[in-house]
Every structure is written in structure tokens, then in C-alpha cells.
From TrEMBL:
Positions in coiled-coil regions: none
UniProt name for this protein: Nucleoside 2-deoxyribosyltransferase
Top-rank lineage group of the source organism: Bacteria
InterPro entries: 2'-dNMP_N-hydrolase, Nucleoside_deoxyribTrfase
Secretion signal span: none
Length: 189
């Protein structure tokens, strides 16, 4: 069974080393991990701009996999990487299981309020809003409710733990628990 390994690790200087470590965890559970930087099953049209070739390659990988594990650790802000979120949604729309993990245990609402700093204010009903009057989502989730909702609805699992910042993009404990859960779900399915 093939698992697409979505996440912002593609931006790391040692992305290939992280990919190899993640593939090894997958292999230990009888799964084949597919990292976004791998050559796609069908090469995109070389005449297209690089950014579009990357898109088509990643979509081909996703379509060729049985499930997806998304690293939803906050990336450059309070929330997960938007590209990873898109990939999770695409796999969910294909009707396949999705799993997620975060190497930050702090909940989304608290992270959003911290990011807003003094720009957040309490409404009369006790909820929070930003400077533009938009409510701050507070459902005690690790990220936007649509992400964890999609994971739950697909039969997947979400794992989180607090990892020190210097190890945040390399610690694979929560990822390993997701791989084990994915192996169970895929074998049962």
C-alpha cells in the first residue's frame, strides 16, 4: 500500500534525509512511503513552468496512493502549510483515508490568539475576534476544524505532541503513530 507523505519538510535543506527516514518508518509497517520530491509516475509536460510541473507531479503522486499522512505542524504562522492542507483535501475528495500529525500540541485557538497579539479582542459573548471583526475559531482542535473533521470522517487518525523547536521538523514519533494507524486501517479495509 502506498502512502503519500504530505508536509512542509520539502522546504528543508535536508529534505531527502527526512524523506528517507519517513520511508523507513513506512517500510517497517509494510507500507511504501511516497515523498513529494520523488519523480512522478508520469512526467509533467516540460514546456509548463516549474511551479505547474510541481503541482502536476504531486497530484499524480496523490492519485497513485492509497492514503495520505499530513504533517500539520504549524508552518510560518498559526496554522498548517496551505499546500499540505490542499493535498489532504484532494485525497479526502478522492474518498481515501487521510491521517495527520502535529509536532506542536498547543491548540489552534491559542496559537491564533498568540499570533494576533494585541489585535484580538473579546466579544460580548466571550468569544474572540481579530481587528477585522472575524471570529477566532475555538473548537479545541489542533488546527482548523475542517482538517480534523476530514481526517475523522475518512477513518483516519490525528496524533500530536509537543516537540522542542530545534527538533520540530525531524521528530518522527507522532508520524510513526500515524503510520501504524494507517497500516491498521488499510489492512482492515
Amino acid at each position: 500500500m502506498r502512502i503519500y507523505l504530505a508536509g512542509p519538510e520539502v522546504f528543508l535543506a535536508d529534505a531527502e534525509a527526512v524523506a528517507a527516514a519517513k520511508r523507513a518508518v513506512c517500510a517497517a509497517h509494510g507500507l511504501l512511503g511516497v515523498f513529494p520530491l520523488e519523480p512522478p509516475p508520469v512526467a509533467p509536460d516540460a514546456a509548463q513552468p516549474e511551479w505547474l510541473r510541481i503541482y502536476w507531479a504531486n497530484e499524480a503522486h496523490i492519485r497513485g496512493c492509497d492514503a495520505l499522512i499530513a504533517n500539520l505542524t504549524p508552518f510560518r504562522g498559526a496554522s498548517a502549510d496551505v499546500g499540505t492542507v490542499y493535498e489532504l483535501g484532494l485525497m479526502r475528495a478522492l474518498g481515501r483515508p487521510v491521517f495527520g500529525y502535529s509536532n506542536t500540541a498547543r491548540r489552534f485557538g491559542a496559537r491564533t490568539l498568540a499570533a494576533l497579539g494585541g489585535a484580538a479582542r473579546r466579544r460580548a459573548d466571550g468569544t474572540w475576534e481579530d481587528a477585522e471583526g472575524m471570529a477566532v475559531e475555538e473548537f479545541d482542535r489542533h488546527d482548523n476544524l475542517m482538517l480534523e473533521g476530514g481526517i475523522a470522517a475518512s477513518g483516519g487518525a490525528f496524533e500530536a505532541e509537543e516537540v522542542p523547536p530545534e527538533r520540530r521538523w525531524h521528530d518522527l514519533a507522532a508520524f510513526t503513530r500515524c503510520v501504524a494507524a494507517a497500516a491498521r486501517v488499510l489492512r482492515a479495509g
